[in-house]
UniProtKB/TrEMBL annotation, chain A:
Lineage, broadest ranks: Eukaryota, Metazoa, Chordata, Craniata, Vertebrata
A single BP term in Gene Ontology: transcription by RNA polymerase I
Any single Pfam family the record assigns to this protein: TAF1_subA
GO CC annotation: RNA polymerase I transcription regulator complex
Protein name as annotated: TAF1A polymerase
PANTHER family named in the record: TATA BOX-BINDING PROTEIN ASSOCIATED FACTOR RNA POLYMERASE I SUBUNIT A, TATA BOX-BINDING PROTEIN-ASSOCIATED FACTOR RNA POLYMERASE I SUBUNIT A
Source species, domain of life: Eukaryota
InterPro entries: SL1/TIF-IB_Component (IPR052669), TAF1A (IPR039495)
Gene: Taf1a
From TrEMBL, chain B:
Origin: domain of life: Eukaryota
Protein name, entry field: TATA box-binding protein-associated factor RNA polymerase I subunit B
Keyword Isomerase among record annotations: no
Stretches assigned to the RRN7-type domain: 2-33
Domain Rrn7/TAF1B C-terminal cyclin, first and last residues per copy: 258-448
Pfam families referenced in this protein's UniProt entry, alphabetically: Rrn7_cyclin_C, Rrn7_cyclin_N, Zn_ribbon_RRN7
One of the GO biological process terms: nucleolar large rRNA transcription by RNA polymerase I
InterPro entries xrefs: Rrn7_cyclin_C (IPR048538), Rrn7_cyclin_N (IPR048540), TAF1B/Rrn7 (IPR033599), TF_Rrn7_Zf (IPR021752)
Family assignment from sequence similarity: Belongs to the RRN7/TAF1B family.
UniProt-recorded Gene Ontology molecular function terms: RNA polymerase I core promoter sequence-specific DNA binding; zinc ion binding
Keywords: DNA-binding, Metal-binding, Nucleus, Transcription, Transcription regulation, Zinc, Zinc-finger
tRNA processing in keyword set: no
Compartments, as annotated in UniProt: Nucleus, Nucleolus
Lineage: Eukaryota, Metazoa, Chordata, Craniata, Vertebrata
Length: 412, 574
């Protein structure tokens, strides 16, 4: 109808918002502030039907601008946040929490703690019950800060020793913080979620005070409880804990197995492969081979000399023993179409040789076995290596040449 | 005029009306306290009681407010607007002689004043200031929401709902809120026959008066001045005197949240002229600014087109008879004559002339431009030939810059003003708090806006784009020659372009769908779209309106050919 193009309040503010959005994306803070100044009068209109109202917009946009604008000071920032807290009861705790995050980023730990305590004591009728999750979060972060204080005390204690009055006072302080922190951290990790930092801190506390069983329980819950979202870090933490506790290889391996399933490219795969290679069980050794091949499928691992040396070692061992060549065959079948270009191109041969001779040596071994002594990679590297009269390259050449028939059996 | 009492001071019966609607004695200038409503003693008994009580309660209790009627408010608005117009240089008679009389006539015709109150009408609504509780719980009293939905003004539903819910919480039997005496009455009755006053209609009044004195301001210019802030409109109520308290339903009437649209003001103006039973307006002759010949000259200049085109616009105007006095002059109530939009018409004439000369089919105009370019390169004597391409580049660039500025202005527009608006006394404190917060935030972020200060209101100017012949970069095309696109045939100068394409073969029935044609950008050449866009920007209206006028002009111009063609078609069908 003819009224569609009418410029009215709503359309004008929508346009204003899109200008703000553009300015923010281009980090033009002054321009964003200019348009926000014009937008704020939206607060005087009722937008209760919209999904996101002007008060939330202004809070989020204003925070961004004040945080990044060169002329903005922390004082103004804090003042702004206090105003935002009054704008919406339903959002009060969220705003408090985000304010705390900013304070922490700015290094104002004490102010952050104060704000957390204040927020924790907030009561507002039925809202208190509705915003229960936010309260828990706030308590958790306060617990975290308590943990930080505990940590500081621990440092002091370790530096100055446990003797004397000071030592006792510090220990007492520590214990206070421990109790406060533990209570809150324990609560939050009961709720399904991603709580890496809380879990780590809580476990640290428990370990210090010798509560290993509880720590183990916590980590198991975090890693294996299906209600919690899949989280690779959970398994990492568990593994690290078990390692610290000196657990058997078996339990360590089972902890890492799941990590391999979720994140085959995880950096712990090297440790995993190393453990598996040493295992007496055949299946485990085969798994080891799987693991290292899988890790090297990822671009981030291309130049990882350690990984290549793991693979090279295992391949070498298998070739020498002449047993289980089918393992290699199986792994290679899935990869023979693309690994040559991915890892063993002539270009990479040159580059690897120039940049990292150990890397090129390990890779050349693998290439030589998988692709034969006539492949580009092996030929170039071994030639260069022998030219440079480096012993290990001579040995490399010998080895590969001697075992060349293996290649034929693998590729056949 | 019905007031027959003797003046207290001089005993004469010679009354006039002040601006505030009070009677004053013309002989001794004694101003009475009686307003015109009070004068009419032919009220039914109910209101008589009311008037007496009103008289006692004149100086309101709580906050120094007084009773005021909606039409008084509008009267103030009109006063402000006409004063602004006078500041712009409009003739002084406009205020006291012309607009004032139109207004009084309106009040009389709509039976809001200067007449006997028809029986059966009582003012039921009570003002908030009085906060009386002796409300007759009338089951027939319309609900708040019903009243709100009846109002034609924009407002947004959310505010209405929150208002409604906040008020309904107070009490079932609370009266309908408004600061004015008759706010709810105003919204409630179906006043279609009586042409209820609205904010956009104030501009219709202004334009009616401007047309009467034939001021050189077109409707599009007037509306542009309004948007630019030279004529009060958006928050004009903040100039109401302190004692005129504005709240509740008054807001729906006086607080608009959208800019008035050309069509709306234009149509209302014609309705108004008919309603007021005005006679034929002063003639619009060739010397008049509103005559297409004059307006075309102005727009040609503004569009940076060669002056020579003016000959062509005059020819077209003459040929189709739109320069005739009878066509142009407004005759209110005459349904057979077409309502003339002077500015749109002139713009459309220029578009048609461009089509005649350049065809504007996305091919021919560029071809002609190339020829002109060649000629200009080789021959610098005798002034340059007009090159469409160069003109397009120059104008498009300026247009884009201005359009971008305008778009940003629209996004930065501040709609609220200092005067707080609240629907009821209950949420007054909340409103004030919010206002305070808004002001704080504006200060805080305003400081961070850098060196960009909010520019002062630019001086009102008739021209939005200006081109100077003194520029040596050749960006002014006024003096360029059309020789490149014209040829002589039988002693007459005619176009080289032999073709013409019609925007539409058949015109729509305006009465049925409101338009003569329907403009869809994708169906027309880019050049045509560009030209429409240029005038659309200058006049601040949608391109489709100009397109409508273009169609109308084309059909008049090629009338004979079209008739033949249609006849031929219909013969075929048989």
């Amino acid at each position: 109808s003819s009224n569609e193009h009418k410029l009215n309040f709503k359309k004008s503010k929508e346009a204003c918002l899109s200008y703000i959005q553009d300015a923010l994306l281009q980090k033009q803070w002054k321009r964003a502030a200019e348009f926000l100044t014009c937008y704020v009068e939206s607060l005087e209109k009722d937008y209760s039907r919209e999904h996101i109202g002007p008060s939330e917009m202004i809070w989020r946009i204003g925070t961004e601008i004040l945080w990044h604008h060169s002329q903005s000071r922390m004082k103004e920032f804090n003042c702004f946040m206090e105003q935002m807290k009054t704008l919406g009861v339903k959002r009060y705790l969220k705003v408090c929490l985000e304010h705390v995050f900013h304070l922490l980023c700015n290094g104002q730990i004490d102010e952050a703690y104060q704000n957390l305590s204040l927020a924790e004591s907030w009561r507002f009728g039925e809202q208190t019950a509705i915003q229960d999750k936010e309260i828990k979060l706030i308590q958790a972060y306060r617990g975290l800060l308590d943990y930080c204080s505990w940590s500081k005390q621990k440092k002091i204690l370790l530096q100055h020793g446990e003797d004397g009055f000071e030592g006792l006072a510090v220990e007492q302080e520590m214990h206070n913080y421990f109790r406060k922190a533990a209570v809150n951290l324990k609560e939050i990790i009961k709720i399904p979620g991603v709580w890496d930092v809380f879990v780590k801190c809580y476990v640290d506390l428990l370990e210090f005070y010798g509560e290993h069983n509880e720590a183990r329980q916590v980590l198991n819950e975090y890693a294996y409880n299906s209600k919690f979202p899949a989280n690779p870090n959970a398994h990492v933490y568990l593994y690290q804990f078990l390692k610290r506790q000196g657990e058997s290889k078996k339990s360590l391996i089972s902890a890492l197995k799941i990590l391999h399933d979720i994140v085959p490219s995880h950096e712990l795969m090297i440790d995993f492969n190393t453990m598996l290679q040493k295992s007496k069980k055949r299946k485990k050794r085969q798994l080891g081979l799987e693991v290292i091949f899988a890790a090297l499928d990822y671009a981030g691992w291309k130049e990882n000399a350690k990984a290549w040396s793991c693979l090279a070692r295992q391949v070498k061992q298998i070739v020498i023993s002449e047993k289980h060549l089918d393992w290699i065959k199986q792994e290679w079948n899935a990869r023979k179409d693309w690994w040559p270009d991915f890892h063993f191109s002539r270009y990479l041969a040159k580059r690897n040789w120039q940049e990292n001779k150990s890397l090129s040596c390990e890779k050349a071994l693998v290439a030589g076995i998988l692709l034969g002594k006539d492949c580009k990679y092996f030929k170039y590297v071994s030639h260069q290596g022998c030219k440079a009269r480096l012993k290990r390259f001579r040995m490399l050449k010998k080895f590969v040449t001697r075992h060349n028939p293996v290649y034929l059996r693998i590729s056949g | 005029r019905d007031f027959n009492e003797r003046c207290a001071q001089c005993s004469e019966v010679n009354w006039g009306l002040t601006d505030g609607g009070r009677f004053y004695c013309r002989s001794c200038h004694n101003v009475t306290e009686r307003t015109r409503e009070v004068v009419n003693t032919d009220f039914i008994t109910n209101s008589r009681v009311q008037t007496i009580s009103k008289g006692l309660k004149k100086q309101g209790k709580n906050d120094g407010g007084c009773e005021w009627y909606i039409c008084e408010g509008f009267q103030l608005v009109l006063k402000k607007q006409v004063e602004a117009l006078q500041a712009l240089g409009v003739c002084p008679q406009m205020k006291d002689e012309i607009l004032c009389n139109f207004w009084r006539c309106y009040l009389q015709k709509s039976k809001q004043a200067y007449c006997k109150r028809p029986a059966g009408e009582t003012v039921k609504a009570l003002s908030v200031c009085e906060s009386s509780t002796d409300v007759d719980s009338d089951p027939e009293r319309p609900s708040l929401l019903h009243l709100l939905s009846l109002s034609e003004s924009e407002g947004d539903l959310q505010t209405d709902c929150s208002f409604a819910s906040s008020v309904s919480k107070v009490s079932e039997s609370t009266s309908v809120y408004s600061g004015s005496v008759d706010g709810s009455l105003y919204l409630m009755k179906n006043q279609k026959e009586k042409l209820r006053m609205t904010m956009p209609m104030t501009l219709s009044f202004c334009y009616l008066a401007l047309l009467w004195v034939r001021e050189p301001i077109t409707l599009s210019e007037l509306l542009r001045f309004v948007v630019e802030g030279h004529i009060p409109y958006m928050n004009v109520f903040q100039h109401f005197p302190e004692k005129m308290k504005l709240c509740g339903l008054d807001l729906k009437i006086f607080c608009v949240e959208s800019w008035p649209v050309y069509e709306e003001v234009f149509n209302k103006m014609h309705e108004l002229a008919a309603f007021l039973d005005l006679p034929r307006f002063p003639d619009i002759t060739e010397n008049c600014f509103l005559h297409p010949d004059m307006l075309c000259m102005k727009y040609l200049m503004e569009a940076n087109l060669p002056d020579e085109l003016h000959n062509w616009t005059c020819r077209v105007v003459k040929k189709i008879g739109i320069g005739e006095v009878d066509f142009l002059t407004l005759m209110p109530g005459n349904k057979s004559t077409r309502k003339v939009k002077y500015d749109v018409l002139a713009a459309a004439v220029i578009v048609v002339v461009l089509k005649l000369l350049f065809l504007l089919d996305d091919h021919y105009e560029w071809l002609l431009s190339e020829f002109a370019e060649e000629r200009n390169k080789n021959n610098t004597e005798g002034g340059p030939y007009f090159e469409f391409k160069k003109w397009y580049e120059v104008v498009k660039h300026s247009l884009d810059v201005e359009q971008k500025k305008l778009d940003e202005e629209k996004a930065k527009y501040l709609w609220r003003c200092e005067k707080p608006l609240f629907y009821s006394v209950k949420n007054k404190s909340k409103v004030l708090k919010r206002r305070q917060m808004v002001v704080n935030l504006q200060n805080q972020f305003g400081k961070l806006s850098g060196s960009v200060q909010r520019a002062e209101k630019p001086n009102p100017s008739s021209f939005q784009l200006s081109w100077s012949e003194e520029n040596t970069d050749g960006s002014c095309f006024h003096g360029h020659s059309l020789k490149g696109v014209l040829q002589e045939k039988c002693g007459l100068l005619t176009t080289m372009n032999p073709d013409y394409w019609l925007c539409t073969v058949k015109l729509c029935n305006e009465k049925l769908c409101g338009h003569l044609a329907h403009y869809r950008e994708v169906e027309f050449p880019q050049s045509y779209h560009f030209v429409l866009g240029l005038f659309s920007f200058l006049l601040r209206i949608q391109p489709s309106y100009i397109h409508d006028e273009v169609c109308m002009i084309e059909h008049r111009l090629f009338n004979k050919k079209l008739c033949k063609k249609l006849k031929y078609n219909s013969v075929l069908r048989k």
